[in-house]
Amino acid sequence: MRDTLKRVVRENPEYLFSILEPEQRFQPSGGGTVQPSWCICSHCRDMPTPREKVCCQRNPDNCISRLPDFGVLILDEAVLALARLYRQDILAMPEDADRNRANRHTGYRQFVLWHHGKLGAEDRRVILSCCVWRIRDKFPDPHGHYIGFKDNRLQ
């Protein structure tokens, strides 16, 4: 049973969150803050498409975007620089001149790897709204222009 659980978590790391925190979902009590109706964690913001309107479904103190590991793996500039170097070395890609955009895109990739594990070339996943906005707040576009989720690379 232990080996099976290890294999499941290795192949689907997102299950680890459900295993470690089986608490009941927190329903906030409206407290005057403006948040989308679909948000439970109170850290989400509205997203442009219905597919992107995804919350972590946790209480505000345990929101995935507020976990210490999120800060280290997704927002730490040294970790992001190392991840970019690795990707550039493997794919022979040039460095993006816009540091915030480079950090933002690397943060998105880091989140997908951390939350979903290694994916195939065309396997794309929507990132939780609270996490998207935490990354965007840390590494903003100077004009506030963001692309959003794309189903495939050719869009």
Largest sheet: none
The overall strand count is: 0
Give helix and strand order, one letter per element, not per position.
HHHHHH
Rg of Cα set: 17 Å
Low-pLDDT windows of residues: 21-33
Structural class of the helix and strand makeup? mainly alpha
Mean pLDDT, to the nearest integer, reads 80
Shape: globular
Helix content: 40-55%
Proportion of strand residues:
under 5%
Characterise the protein shown here.
Helix content is 43%, strand content 0%. The chain is an all-alpha fold and 155 residues long. The protein is globular and about 40 Å long. The protein starts with a helix and ends in a 17-residue tail after the last helix.
Write the SSE topology.
Elements lengths: L1 H10 L3 H6 L47 H8 L1 H15 L7 H18 L12 H10 L17
Properties at a glance:
single chain; about 160 residues; mainly alpha; about 45% helix; about 0% strand; globular
Describe the structure concisely:
By secondary structure, this protein is an all-alpha fold.
